[in-house]
């Protein structure tokens, strides 16, 4: 009976994930019906941390993308994000990463740095698309962002990482890319808990700053109340 129950739950879970996948593909399917073929979903991670870069990803998925479980990266475990990252990279028509470090963030503010990272991600994805298929991205879906400098048809979706398969995929790619960088930074700066807090303002992180000062990857404009 236990095995039967487990099998039923597994089957129900698979049905749920398949339905969720089709739900997330609705916007892209509508755009394809309008004649757009290479639709890039764009998302970012790292606007809030005290340290490290802001990272953006742009992902173009094929119409027959069939990887189950892709969703808003915040809803997924670290293990699942890593598994899906590999599947997305393998199945994507193209993808690109963009990032801006703490110096750029301090110089022009986090919003403008985020926009630049997104533009860079789109440009890198388009380079891959041109090299592979000699095509260009013809529509961009942003998660709650509008960037006039991107001279392509575009749409801003509130909570886009929960509504669009392309944006959800981009959220995972951006999150895993940044998390891996912060784990690497932890090996260089071991006193701030970067391997677990990824640069966000946890108790351990603040204690590390008080005891050891700031590192070259800290955002000084985010620490005005601490550093004088």
Automatic annotation (TrEMBL):
Cofactor annotation remark: Manganese or magnesium. Binds 1 divalent metal ion per monomer in the absence of substrate. May bind a second metal ion after substrate binding.
Keywords linked to the UniProt accession: Cytoplasm, Endonuclease, Hydrolase, Manganese, Metal-binding, Nuclease
One Gene Ontology term of the molecular function aspect: manganese ion binding
Coiled-coil regions listed in the entry: none
Primary enzyme class: hydrolase
Cofactors named for this entry: Mg(2+); Mn(2+)
GO biological process: DNA replication, removal of RNA primer; mismatch repair
Source taxon at top rank: Bacteria
Residues annotated as binding a divalent metal cation: 43-44, 143
EC number from the UniProt entry: 3.1.26.4
Domain RNase H type-2: 37-228
Reaction(s) catalysed (UniProt annotation): Endonucleolytic cleavage to 5'-phosphomonoester
GO cellular component: cytoplasm; ribonuclease H2 complex
One Pfam family this sequence matches: RNase_HII
Subcellular location: Cytoplasm
InterPro entries documented for this protein: RNase_HII, RNase_HII/HIII, RNase_HII/HIII_dom, RNaseH-like_sf, RNaseH_sf
Family: Belongs to the RNase HII family.
Known role: Endonuclease that specifically degrades the RNA of RNA-DNA hybrids.
Name of the protein in question: Ribonuclease HII
Organism whose genome encodes this protein: Emergencia timonensis
